[in-house]
Amino acid sequence: MLLPIKETAGVILDIRYASDNNFVGRAVYARPVALLHREAHAAFVRALARAQVLGLGFRIFDAFRPIEVQSILWDAVSDKTFVADPALGGTHPRGIALDLTLFDLATGEDLPMGTGFDAVTPLSAHGALEGLSAEVIRNRALLLGLMSAAGWDSYEPEWWHYNLPDGDALPVLSAADVPEGPL
Q1: What domains are there in the chain, each with its CATH number?
Q2: SS in 3 state form for the chain?
Q3: Which domain of life is it from (predicted)?
Q4: Whole-structure pTM over 0.85, yes or no?
């Protein structure tokens, strides 16, 4: 079952694949929604509570991704490190992955992370140091700590990507699995 992440004072939905502001250059989602499997949703709520104690919130770029869209992204990117092979399913099509960043609740400004979301570059890696400021490295470590403490695993090449561990047993879902109407 997929549950929606609702926009609140601590959550901004900036679903990039529902707009042309992404590396494909066009919308590949019909609606700007963020859905997660029940367990992933609970882990997100835990991470959000930790972030809010620090005066931070989450800007959500992507969550559940239908397998049809996974195929579109796979075909559109040359460096396959940055998109899971749809033949293997991946974590987004199972509803157990989030792409997100942190923002300051007082100002609404995103914390600097050194690269943009979906930047296909070695600088996007969690372990990248060269060329990144101390502030960026701290912000990435803060995001990593908040998400890890709530039960999420990181994906090394992408500072913005987190997924629940051991989710391979969950089914891969398609666009037909997205509920219609208000969420």
Answers
A1: 2-177 (3.30.1380.10)
A2: CEEECCCECCEEECCHHHCCCCCCCCCCCCCCCCEEEHHHHHHHHHHHHHHHHCCEEEEEEECCCCHHHHHHHHHHCCCHHHCCCHHHCCCHHHCCEEEEEEEECCCCCECCCCCCCCCCCHHHCCCCCCCCCHHHHHHHHHHHHHHHHCCCEEECCEEEEEECCCCCCCCCCCHHHCCCCCC
A3: Bacteria
A4: yes
